[in-house]
Amino acid sequence: MRADQRRRDLHRLVDALPEGKTEAARRLLANLLVESDAPLPEDLVERLSLIERIVDLLPDGVLAVDREGKVVLWNRAVEEMTGIRKEKVLGKGEYAYAVPFYGERRPILVNILLGNGQEWAQRYEKIKQKGQVLIGEGFAPCAYGGRGLHFWTLAAPIYDEKGNLLGAVQCTRDIGERKKMEDELRHQSTHDALSGLYNRAFFEEELRRLEKGRSFPVSLILCDLNGLKVVNDALGHERGDELLRRTAKVLAGCVRGADVVARVGGDEFAVVLPQTDRKAAEEVVKRIIEAVERNNAQHPDLPLSISLGIATAEDASRPLQKVYTEADDAMYRDKLARGTEPHRAVVRVLKVALAEKDFVAGGHTERVKKLACMLGEAVELSRNDLDTLCLLADMHDIGKLGVPEYILFKPAALTETEWEEIRRHPEVGYRIALSSAELAPVAELIRQHHERWNGQGYPRGLRGEETHILSRILAIADAYDAMTSKRPYRSARSPAEALEELKRSAGTQFDPHLVEIFVRLLRKRT
Questions:
Q1: What is the distance of C-alpha 491 from the center of its chain?
Q2: Confidence of residue 10 (pLDDT cuts 50, 70, 90)
Q3: What is the number of domains present in the chain?
Q4: Inside any domain, residue 348
Q5: 408 and 328 co-located in one domain
Q6: Interior CA angle at 254 toward 201 and 327, to 5°?
Q7: Taking the complete model, does pTM exceed 0.90, yes or no?
Q8: What's the rounded Cα separation, in Å, for the pair 366 and 467?
Q9: Helix (H, G, I), strand (E, B), or coil: what is residue 328?
Q10: How confident is the model at residue 99 (pLDDT cuts 50, 70, 90)?
Q11: Rounded-to-integer distance, Cα 379 and Cα 401, Å
């Protein structure tokens, strides 16, 4: 009769467990109901042995305690989580089984379900009750040998047919991968992938949060990375991305951990400084400027150039969006106040890029600039035109950044296809220069510097004075220096030979009046 009663109890208690965990229930009941040394029927022993093996194969950790809180079930998955074999924990109470999870004796979900240690429910990240079942999520720092375990867990009570509580079973699932994915998705939703800073959506949400808080005064710093578009166009997006990442690192390194640094646009960054007045914000700007200078000393080939603006809200009387607009206006005024500094930074970057491809080897650009300015002064150009001519001389070959090096330095004659690539460079240079406010004044001049007096030049076949005088001057200076310099495909000519070639090409390739003046100037120097 006792064995029959055990079987009936077994089936009733199986139904008490969540779906999919019946095998664990059977093992639990076998432990709970065996109260004497009398042997169980042979068929029940075989079934329980099979069930025990099945429970050990479950991917989730399964443990159970009796109503006194002593362990009666501890499967293989729990052994892996804790490093504790079941032989060492079965029959143990007083929360000893919590130590390999939490490093201390404390109630876990089965104990809370049984009415012990209700205050410990607060230690779970999430916890809710569905009927008689408790479900929770949390983190066990000591599991997996100290690596820790993010888990989902469920605890269910076990009753006999009279409603008496026999114990409880807890199933624990490792959700580390899920948590990692959730954290990554959460990070992606609030951060800029390139810079690693917060994104605009998070920044705007932070402004709304601060408006409702007590963190005033709040200061905002707006930062614009000058020349990013032209670097992207001329050097490629990899170099532009490098500038963005360096800017992000500089800004993040100049503020407190509680401050927010965000990338709010393609080349724009914003810093939110809670509990920071105007004077303190100006100190942060000073640190940023000094950090940029240190960074540029380490990267002279690709310097940062930034403009900065500050605005402060002393209290909640003004919307922070309005303060943002004030900071943006201040940043624009800073850009204007610094005049040609951003321009010089862009030109310096592009000159370095040209040097890397050997376009200015042997001082070609500087020689062309001197020759062009000499001719410009001789024809009495204005100071403004001379400045533009200098910039044109610096940038006239910028389009060649888009021409493969094997073509530029080919020692043999170019094929027609290769010549087509060469002929594209004035248009490419035009587009690069046009993309930058600093270089826009010479964009059209760059496009014209391979036009010819007789209309047989490229890219548009302009004739005579349809080509701007600055481009006509540059063409003469560029041709003379090219002829008197060694090239991969030929030796250098003598100055006299180069001047004779200019004279022969006057009226066809070059402006005859400008050639006459140029030849006279050069012969006076020899």
A1: 49
A2: very low
A3: 3
A4: no
A5: no
A6: 55
A7: no
A8: 23
A9: helix
A10: very high
A11: 32
Residue showing tokens 């109901």: 33
Of 331, 332, 329, 324, the closest CA to residue 206 belongs to 324
The DSSP H or E segment spanning 313 is strand 306-313
Distance CA 267, CA 254 (A): 19
Instruction: Count Cβ atoms within 10 A of the Cβ of residue 187 and give its class: 0-12 exposed, 13-18 middle, 19 or more buried.
Output: exposed
- Per-residue pLDDT at 54: 80
Average pLDDT for 394-420: 81
Q: How many CB atoms lie within 10 A of CB 363?
A: 12
Q: What is the pLDDT of residue 42?
A: 62
> Which value, in Å, is the radius of gyration of the alpha carbons in the chain?
39
Predicted confidence (pLDDT) at residue 479 exceeds the cutoff of 90: yes
CA distance 288 to 252: 9
End-to-end Cα separation, the chain, in angstroms: 128
Q: Is residue 346 part of a domain?
A: no
Q: What are phi and psi of 130, to 5 degrees?
A: -120, 100
Residue 421 has pLDDT above 90, yes or no: no
Q: Is the domain of 369 the same as that of 496?
A: yes
39 contact partners, CB below 8 Å, separation of at least 6: 45
| Beta bridge partners of residue 159, listed in sequence order | 165
Candidates 228, 230, 270; CA nearest to 248 is 270
Q: Based on the domain organization, do 363 and 512 belong to the same domain? A: yes
> Closest Cα to residue 374, out of 203, 186, 524, 482?
524
Tally Cβ neighbours within 10 Å of residue 225. 24
Place of tokens 């079942």: 133
Cα 197 to Cα 271: distance, rounded to the nearest angstrom: 10
Do both 375 and 503 map to the same domain? yes
Bin 486: left if φ > 0, else alpha if -120 < ψ < 50, else beta: beta
Question: Given this model, what pLDDT does residue 50 score?
Answer: 74
- DSSP string covering 236-300: -HHHHHHHHHHHHHHHHTTS-TTSEEEE-SSSEEEEEETT--HHHHHHHHHHHHHHHHHHHHH-T
My answer on whether 125 and 212 are in the same domain is no
Tell me the per-residue pLDDT of 365-387, one tens digit each, with 9 for 90 and over.
Answer: 889 999 999 999 999 999 999 99
The DSSP element (H or E) to which 154 belongs, if any, is: strand 149-159
Residues 371, 376, 382, 387: is their CA dihedral positive or negative?
A: negative
- CATH number of the domain encompassing residue 321: 3.30.70.270
- Which residues have a Cβ under 8 Å from the Cβ of 142 and sit 6 or more positions away? 99, 100, 101, 102, 103, 148
Q: Does one domain contain both 152 and 46?
A: yes
Residue type, 201: A
Residues 431 and 519 in one domain: yes
- Reported as a single tens digit per residue, the pLDDT across 203-243 is 999 999 999 988 999 999 999 998 888 888 878 899 899 99
Give the span between the Cα atoms of 385 and 368, in whole angstroms. Answer: 16
CA-angle at 292, arms to 288 and 294, nearest 5°: 115
Other CB atoms closer than 10 Å to residue 471's CB: what's the count?
23
Residue 344 pLDDT grade (very low, low, confident, very high; cuts 50, 70, 90): low
